[in-house]
Amino acid sequence: MNPSADPSEVDTASWRGQNLRLVPAAATAWLGTLSGLLGGWWITMLCGAAAVVLAITAGVRARRTASRWVAGLGALAVLGVLTAGPVALRIRAAEQDDLRAAAARGVEATARVVVTERPRPVRGAGYADRRAGTRLVVVAAAVDAAVTGERVVDSAGRILLLAPAEGWTDLLPGQQVTASGRLAPAKGVELTVAVLSVRGPPSALGPAPWWQRAAESLRTGLRDLCAVLPEEQAGLVPGLVVGDTSTLSPRVESEFTDSGMSHLMAVSGGNVAIVCGSILLLLRVLRVGPRTSAAAAAAGLAGFVVLAGPAPSVLRAGVMGAVGLLALALGRRGSALPALAFAVAGLVVADPAMAADFGFALSVLATAGLVLLAPRWAEWLVGRGVPAGYAEGLAIPLAAFVMTAPVIAGMAGSVSLVSVVTNVLAAPVVAPATVFGVLATVIGPWWPPAGRLLVRLTEPEASWLITVARHGARAPGAVVAWPDGWWGGLLVAGLLAVLLVAIRLRYARILLAVALAAGLLVFVPVRALAPAWPPASWSAVACDVGQGDAVVLATGEPGRAVLVDTGPEPGPVDECLRRLDVDRVPLIVLSHLHADHIGGLESVFEGRSVGAVAVGPGRAPAWAWQQVADETARRGVPLLELSIGQRLDWPGLSLDVLGPRYVTRRSVREQDGTVINNGSVVLRAGTAAGRLLLTGDVELAAQADLMAEGADLRAEILKVPHHGSRYTAPDFLNAVAPRAALVSVGAGNTYGHPNKSTLDNLVAVGASVARTDTDGDTAVLLDARGLALVRRGEPRGPPRS
């Protein structure tokens, strides 16, 4: 191949060099099954029958000309028969399942099921007295028997159990269990016939197969071994090795998603390639023959699949890896595309629901990109002077991005612009981390010191991956909002096609290079020299931390600020402080101990000096008080209690403690959410922009007490109580008479915050309202025109109504 060849010639050559004979058969199975799942089983039957007729007709002509496509047409005919027969009948059985009809009526049911996958946790941010974490799990199962009322339902379909985490988290594939609850229709186009919302723990538990118990023991051993690592790394390593994200930090999970690296925590072909490749490399050094090597790698593959569990992604990776090893054993090393086609067809026939699975589509497209595009792009880069290793490192993630971006955009409604860069930076450490982790998992139970040593060897790699993901997620424009659905996916595909065509044309490449250079010269200096955020001389910032509170108060010293509340989870408040260049926090005030005000506390300490943490007299809920006490003790930071009348001063900032004046005699165990809200610390901050009243979540009773006690509530800026709930008295707003109001609230929350009547009352008293769910971080400052509200990314201006 000519190294200086045009990229268009490279791509054409890559297609000519592949054996495409099995592709029509695989496409028939996949698209025919997908059509049936979307429109009805009869469409799948028609697609299969049409494929059979086409194969027979074309086969007769091909035999006359001795065409090399005869074998492919035979495969097309076989897949057509399978699609029109068994696959269509399985879709029909799911459509007509009696449990589906019962689910449509929303009746109560008791089902005896067999668990088919490990329970998947559903994490939630903390709110009120509910701590952040996993409260629910989703359990995929196959129905063995079901009863609705007194009627036995004839069903052998798939079902999803939405169950409490307690009692259900530790179930293993292969276990029989009985569950009771209310049925609901299943969403999506898969073969799942119903969703059962379960109440209470499982009953009549059966034993799990011995190999599943052994695999769970190894996974538990790996989690225990990872206790020697820092918290974030300890949660990440099991995810990298066996896809176990049960102890993964929500912050790390979010950062991996935003930076386009979440696939590293789902067992996929990459894990299989690393495990099998390591075995094959070792046996090659020992000069073992290809068939024996393939057999040994197949044994390792089978063990790894059992270890990771029978999730769809694991089974996909296992099947594709097995086909590749079979090709190696038969001495057919250049058959990557036929192996992929065979695996696609086999998986869809074995499990028709795969055809509608986004993960399956991403896996197939990414693999196709690696087979068809990456090798040729790498050669093209080598021909232009890029070293071979670097060329492959660039070509592989770029090819995967080009092939999968349309599906990701249509599925998620967003596009990660940093995923290629982050995956290039991550690639060198994934393999050693996986190998060390697998070895630790296998060796640890028998030789714990060696297991701990191997786990420690994964720490540098895990730390590097977290660093890459964190900086990737922080990059400006890391995730771009995009239209979701079919149109969004097609739009991305069209843009990528235009870009690839443009790159093939010499003058278009020059224009693209000029446009990129101009963009870098214009926008980068502007952002570096005159960043839009934070605005100069800001006095206070309401951070966008989701459904929770976090307000930063500037002192007269750059980089030093007081923080009131920390949001519902680690991460968002840390990012807000980082954007404000705050590295010293003399005081953190926790207005009260609800989860949406204390959840981000631990992340405030990261890379910052903290002088003290202050609370009010409340100690409920008990778990939250213990969490705050433990965190401050671990950090060696004083934990203080504020009292009414106390005044705190810093250069450019003062805090007066006005409340809580609401008094309760209830014990900690008896205090409900309203009592805890009314016990919020109320502060009046003196800032360069004016007085700011910080109200926590005080409700009607506490607001009335503040007014009755004659507290001076007048303030130019109000942090609206309780995320703008309806429990805000108009008289209280009149007493404050704010010119600007900050509502800290999460987008799309289910609590009805902020309430329309509260917003109307704020406008009626003459306040301009800023909401973090629509405006993001919002700064308050005083400029030449007076009091100003600046939304992140918007030009400075006066308060707007």
From TrEMBL:
**Which species does the entry assign this protein to?**
Amycolatopsis decaplanina DSM 44594
Could you say which residues form the signal peptide?
A: none
InterPro entries tied to this protein:
ComA-like_MBL, ComEC_N, Competence_DNA_uptake, Metallo-B-lactamas, RibonucZ/Hydroxyglut_hydro
Q: Which SUPFAM superfamilies match?
A: Metallo-hydrolase/oxidoreductase
One GO CC term, this protein:
plasma membrane
Q: Which domain of life is it from?
A: Bacteria
NCBIfam families reported in the protein's UniProt record: ComEC_N-term
Residue ranges spanning the membrane: these are: 40-62, 69-89, 264-283, 295-315, 335-353, 360-378, 398-418, 425-447, 485-503, 510-530
Q: Does the keyword Acyltransferase apply?
A: no
Subcellular localization, as worded in the UniProt entry: Cell membrane
Question: Could you tell me what this protein is called?
Answer: Competence protein ComEC
Keyword annotations: Cell membrane, Membrane, Transmembrane, Transmembrane helix
How this chain sits in the membrane, per its record, is: Multi-pass membrane protein
Q: Which intervals hold domain Metallo-beta-lactamase?
A: 547-748
